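Worked example

This section walks through a single chain of length 248. The input is the sequence exactly as stored; nothing has been trimmed or padded.
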Amino acid sequence: MKTIDTPTETGFLFPALPALEPSPAALHNQLLLRGLTHKLNNLLSVVKGNMGLLQMDDALGPEGRNHIEESKRACDLMAGLGDRIRACAGCSTPEITPVAAESVLLPLPNALQRAAASKGIELQTHAAPALPHVWADPGSLRDILSELVANAIEASADGSIVSIQILAPGMWEPEQLSHVDVFVRNPSPALSQKQILALFQPFHTSKGGNHSGTGLTLALALATQMGMPLGIRNTGQSTDVWLRLPVV
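Given that input, the structure is written out below as tokens.
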């Protein structure tokens, strides 16, 4: 994983993805990937449908029903993973329009609220008043923040605090008035630069087999497609992620 522009005054690293511009080779590979995941989703639907028919057998015991339910959930997870991989590979094109950042980013989705509550984690959110509109695809921007917050929750110990701040232009860097700055912070032990950059590698995870290891990869891919710098730093006590939204 390469990095670009590392401001020494802030300590943030900016991971860089391979170019996602529509070169002939990239378009060909994206076409193959779309076709592959579409075919796999069709096959998974067939498998899941047949499992549903098996569940209708009155002779099937509780243990067998549980196994079938687990297999159906695995099919759903696999289909969802295919969608995420397509997005990571730049198979979708964001529709960038002027949007109100606060209305898109807050409140946080209920799924994130439940995930935090299950670990006793407090989500602290703050948005500066009268934020300007920014250039973004609303769905992609919402997905980026969701992935960043979900990763922060999963990486935090029970009972921790995860904070989300949306700052108006000039609040973070007084001389910089062309961006709205979004920060997600979670408590964290010290991490080396190599460990930090590994977090953005596809399928890299330290959270066990139930995690796909694509959350930060997806966030970086969506941010790259929309021309939004995404930085990360570790202070020895926290991990901070910084997303810059261009002002309209």
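What to look for: The beta strands are 2-4, 14-16, 97-100, 122-127, 133-136, 161-167, 179-187, 230-234, 238-246.
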